[in-house]
Amino acid sequence: MNALLRSCLICYALVASMWAQAAAPSVAVYYGKDASMSELALFDIAVVEAEQGYDPVKFRSTWPSSELYAYASVAEAGDERAYLKKIPSAWKMARNGAWKSVVIDQTPEPWPAFFADEVIGPLWQKGFRGFFLDTMDSYRLAEKFNEAEQQDGLVRVIKTLNERFPGIKLILNRGFEIVPRVKDQIQMVAAESLFRGWDANLKRYIDVPAKDREWLLAQLQTIRERDKLPVLAIDYVPPNDRDAMRTTAKQIADLGIIPWISDSLLFTLGMGTVEAQARHILILYNGADYPTLNEASAHRFVEMPLNYLGYIADYVDVRKPLPQNISSDRYAGIITWFGGAIPDQRVKDVRQWLANQSRQKMPILVLNTPGFPIDRTLPFDVRSSEAIPALPLKKAEQASMYGFEMQPLSPPIDYEGWTLNAEALQKSQQLLSFDDAKGKRFVSAAITPWGGFVLMPYLVEEVPGTDQSRWVINPFAMLKQTLRLADFPVPDVTTENGRRLLLAHVDGDAFPSKAEVPGSPFAGEMLRREILERYRIPHTISVIEAEISPQGLYPQWSKQLESIAKQIFAMPHVEIASHSYSHPFFWDRTVSRKEEGKEVDLNLHIPGYVMDLHREINGSVDYIQKNLAPPGKPVKVFLWSGDTAPSAEALAISDAAGLLNINGGDTSITRNNPSLTEVRSWGIRKGGHLQVYAPVTNENIYTNLWHGPFYGFEKVTETFAMTDTPRRLKAINIYYHFYSVSKVASIKALHTAYKWALSRPVHPVFASEYVRKVHDFYEFAVGKDEQGWRMRGPGQLRTLRLPSTLGTPLMQDSVNIAGYQEGPDGYYAHMAFNSAQMQTQPNAAPSKQPYLVDANARISEWKAQADGSVIFSLQGHLPLEWRMYLPQGCSLTAVQGAAPTSAATDRSFIRSFKSPQNSAELKAQCRAL
Predict the structure, then answer these.
(1) Structural domain includes residue 201
(2) In the predicted model, is pLDDT for residue 20 greater than 80?
(3) 695/815 same-domain check
(4) Which of 65, 116, 201, 333 could be 483's S-S partner, Cβ–Cβ 3.0 to 4.6 Å?
(5) Same structural domain for residues 324 and 205?
C-alpha cells in the first residue's frame, strides 16, 4: 500500500476507501432549521424534519457522498401532522401527552398502505430516499395491546415500504424484536439514551441508570454482531455543554456504536463522529446610534477581523426582542459594542439576557462601553466604577497585544475603568490597567473567565485633527483570546489555487462624458479603446440607464452611446452589469436624510420620476437586456450606487431578480492612513440577504471625491500591497467609474493599477465569480473527526487558509485536496471539488507525491485513475500558467493537444508550466519507487 501511495498524485479512490473503512457512517439527527445544507453535508447521513424545507434532490446533486433522510413516525402521529385527521378513530390506541401525539395501532390491515401513501409517499415525491422510522414500539403506551400482533404490523409496514419504493433506505429507532425479521430490508438500527437522556415528563436532562444502559447496550451489540447492522445511539445533553457532548460521543464511539449527541428536541446541530465548527458570532448593537447597520462601529471595525479568522457576524439591535436559544452548535461567542447608554426600557432585558448566556458558558466580549451600569446581577465579577480615580493615574499592566497601530494614550480626565474583586483579578488576565494615586486598580481591558472586555478609549482611537482611526489593541489577538476562538481551515475568498484573485469592475457614472483628449470621445468609447482592448482580463462593466437611453438625460447622444455600450458588452471578456436607472444616492428609504432642514433625495434629476426600487433594479436590467446585451448574454450583476447601503428590501428585489450584487465597504488603507480600521468585511447581511462589498474602494476616495489630484488612484496599489501582507485580507480589485478615462492623469493612474496587478501572480475572475465565493463563505461548513478536517461548500469557494498552528496538508492522507501554496500568513490549500477531507501536520516532511502549487485557472475536472495517476483539467480566462510540485520519478503530460511548455525544476521540485490556451487536460503520474 505504501509503495502505491508514493506512486500517486492524489490517490482519491484508495484514500477514500481508507477513510470509509476507518469508521462507520457519520450520522446527524437534526430537526431544526438553522443549519446550512453545507453543515448537514459534513455527515454521511443527516436525518431532518422534511417540513423545515430541505431539498433532498439539490442536496444529493451537490454532495453525492452525503444523503438527507426524512424523519417519519411510524407508531405515533403528532398533532401538527396533516395526515392525522385521515386516521380512523379506531386506529388510535392512546395519547402520548409528553410529546403531544397520538399512538397508532399497527394491526389494521390497511395501515401499511396508509403509511406508505400518506406519510412516505409525499416525502418520496420530494426526493427523499432514506427515512428514519421513529417510535417503533410506542404501542406499549396503550393500556391493552398484543405484542406479537403489533410487531407483525410493524414488519408489514417495512415490507410494504420496500415493495412500494424500490431502493428505499430505512433506519429503525428501536423495534429490536423485529430486527431479525427485517434485517435485509433496513440499513441501521438506532436507540435513544445510552448514557445521557431526557425526561420528557420532568423536562430535565438525566444520567441513564446503569441497569438501563446495560440492557440497551446488550440490545445494540446483539444487533451489530448477530444481524451485521450498524447501530446508532442518540443521547441528550444540554446544548451548550460541549465538553459533556464530546465526552459522551467518545464513550459511545469507543463501544463501536455510532454516536449522536444533541439537545432534547434535536433542534441543535450536535456532534457524533463529526463535530461541526461553530462559525457565527452574535453582535449586539444599538440601532439608535447609527443611521444604518453599515455605519455601526462593530460592523466597521470588528467584522473584518472576524471574517479573517473564519467567523460570520450576526447582528441584533437591542431595541428589539433578543433571540432565544443561542447555542454553541452555531455560535462561538457574543460581542456587545454600544456607542453609549442603551434605552432605559431595554436595560433589564439586555442585562438578564447577557447573564443567561454567560451562565450557559457562552463567551462574551464587551467592547467600548457596556451600555448600562454593571452590577452584581451579572455573573461578571466586575463593577462599573462611579468613583473618580484619584489623579495621577499610573499604568499598571499592558499586554503585548496593545500598541498594535498606536500606543495607549494617557487616561483622559473623565476616564472610567472597571474594578474587579480580588477573586476576579486572580482569575483574569489584565490587558491594560491603571492604578490611581490611592493604589486602587482600574482595568480597561482584560481576559476573564466569562470572556473579556475592552473599554474606550483603549479599543479604537481617533487620530486628533483627522478623520482617521487606529486600533490600539490587536483585534485578531483580542477576539481569539477573549472568545476562545479555535483554529480551523478558514474558507478564504481572496485566493484560488494559490493565487490572489484579481477582478475589475466599472460603475456606469459619466459614460456620456467627453474625454479631455484629441477628438473628445465619449468616456465609454475611451474605456473600450484605452483599457478593454489593452487589458483583456475579465471585466464587469455597467451603465446607468438614464444616462444613455433615448428617454434619458441625453436623447441627442443616445444612439451613439447605446452603440458604444453594445460594442463593450459584446466583448468576450466583459460581463454585463447594471448601475441602476437614476443612480440613487440613498438606497434605504426608511432612513431620514436631511440637510439644512430639508429632506435629501439625491439621484439624477429626471422630470416626474419618483424613486422606485423596482424601477431602479428590475427596470434598468430589463432595458440593458433588451437594448444593449448580445443575444444569450445575460445581465448578471447589480452594482450599488451612491452611499452603497441598500436596505433589506432592495437586496431582496435584487436577489429575486437572480442578480448578484456588489459595491460598498470602501476599503482604502494607504501609507497616509495605514490602519486596518480602513479595511472592511466581506459584506453585510440584512433581513436574510447579503450585500457583497467590493474588495477595494474606487477612485473617489483617492481623488478627494474627484476634486483632485486626478492621478490619486495610483495610490490604490498601496491598498493592494497593504491588504496582502502581513495578512492577505482582500483580493486585488481595480474598481472605478467611467469618468476615470476622461482625464489624462486619471488614465495614467489606471494603467499604473493594471500594470501593478498584472505583474503579480494572480487568478483573474469576473465580479460575479468573486461574489459567488463570498456567498459561499457564509454557507461553508468545516467539521472535524478522528481522521482530520471535513470541508463542505456550495462549490464556488475552494480555498482554505491554514493557520500556522495547523501546518500543511498531508497529501497522502487527504481527499480532494489538489495541493497547497505558502502565502503571507499561512498555507493555502486547494480543494478540487466542493467537498474535501484533509489531514494537516506542523513541520510535516516533504510530500512524496506531486500536487498543484498554484494556477491562474480553476480546476474543472479531477479524476483518479486505476493506475494511481490523476487526470485533471484547468479552465481559466487567460493563457494558462501553473506550477506543479513534481518529486523524483513524477511527470506531467497533456492528455490531448500540445504539451505545455515547462521551466526547469528547482531544488524544491516545483516546475512552472505555460500554455497559450486558457484550458488544458493534463495527467500527473509517478513511476513506482
Answers:
(1) yes
(2) no
(3) no
(4) 333
(5) no
